[in-house]
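Fold it.
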Amino acid sequence: MNPLKHVAIIMDGNGRWGLKHKNSRNAGHKAGLSTVEKIIKSSIKNKIKFLTLFAFSTENWKRPKKEINYLFSLLQSFLSDKITELNNQGIKLKIIGKKNFSKKLNKLLSSSENKTSSNTKIQINLALNYGSKIELINAFENVQKNKEKINEKNIVKYLLTKNIPDPEILIRTGNTKRLSNFLLWQLAYSEIFFVKKLWPDFNEKDFDYIIKKFKNIKRNFGKI
């Protein structure tokens, strides 16, 4: 059976779910938070050490300002209400991406990281204002600036995911089959599962099914 340390998820379909069920994209974003909590619990149950969630991309700034503001207020409320509970569960939070938000949210993100920094049960990497192309450009620039040889080892140490193993699994919900500028380097050998369900409809049973399927895949990494 294949070992599994790291699952990455593109949580797609919140807005579409909200329009379909509540005539509001924001209602879908709110419903998606319940799925996040379920999948965190399921990850702990499955002894997964790293869970990376794509919450807001560098391209998402193109969305209507009203929706962006709602997303950040939702995140702010979630962390304010839940960070103590997450900490008590032994969950470590790490933000991947540039903290380019309001002073209040930046402070909350940093304090949440600091508060949970010594936890070891699972690490939740929250990709916020994250874009893989920018991450790779910054890594190459750092290699060049430090006059180091351009090789895999030196590039990896400047990625936002340094000291985190590459994901063995990528899940994308929402019936969309693309990577959307997410972990382009890190996903080189990940097993990719595209799911038709919209994110708020995704559940523990779906997650467990993917994990079970992954564990029985023959992984060659270029060999026969």
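The first strand starts at residue 6 and ends at 10.
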